[in-house]
Amino acid sequence: MAAHAHTHATGSGWKQHVLASFAHEGFRAGGARAVVVELLAEQDCCLSAQEIFDRLRAGGRKVGIASVYRVLDQLAQMQLVQRVDVGGGVSRFEAAHPGGDHHHHLVCDDCGRVVAFEDERLEAELDRVGKSLGARVAAHDLVLHGACADCSQK
Amino acid sequence: MAAHAHTHATGSGWKQHVLASFAHEGFRAGGARAVVVELLAEQDCCLSAQEIFDRLRAGGRKVGIASVYRVLDQLAQMQLVQRVDVGGGVSRFEAAHPGGDHHHHLVCDDCGRVVAFEDERLEAELDRVGKSLGARVAAHDLVLHGACADCSQK
DNA sequence: ATACGTGCAAAGTATTTGCAAACGG
DNA sequence: CCGTTTGCAAATACTTTGCACGTAT
Which H/E stretch holds residue A72? Predict the structure, then answer.
């Protein structure tokens, strides 16, 4: 596989930011909340609730999947994670960064792989379009469907 | 509300195109297939399977929801309709036009309304990005989340 | 007439909710 | 200590599948 993946994990700055937000809102950050945030902070790309659940369990943590969903939902409402809908009836989630470092996804309809990418000019157009609609755009979710670089060669 | 909505229904050219495709593939276009295509052809924006089902029933047609899903799935695979994932675990569908007239969606997280829009420059950027990924992009699905023009005024 | 297509009902997934026990502050 | 948070299990919502009947060709 090709790819100069995203250099690093999502960065621990995000984790700090989330914990601070929790503290600020008076939420406790014990068990499930903490481990979900920790796991998300280590990811380079989006995960489904089930994947998060499985990894936490594999790591020996005794979380319930309901808690995973609850935490993700809460984080999404606080705009600390971005819901990514790649289709197939499954929601995926990833850390939402305050400033930039925003990325989108290409879903290979052939092999199912999800590839992340970012593009500054595209971002600029998205901003412009949002404004021109007179709406207050809080987030955008772009998914390209098709055959990924590998599959389209075959 | 602002907006120079889409001028007209989706255009009957699409319906013809679909029926021709069916004929070409040797598919029969009797009952459910025909009415789902007919309904989709009249729409300006995406509908969920349930909405399609309800409208057909309201119109006196005795279709089953399973057939609606089957037809939509088939049309999607033939690239005659575009699946639109606006989140909330529900898939929506709309006629996919061969050449242009492509649009995207803004979902108001406040009132739930879905607003369609199109933008040529954005389209151009999307094309460029798709190519730069080396992938064969068959479709793209862009959803802006936020407060629509109406809701953001309140 | 004969497959293909359809409606119904039952099954399958993803996600949400109710509740008693556990735990952080 | 007390109220939030959690894990479990049951419930819900959307979508898919199995099967016998209807229908276009």
Answer: helix A65-77
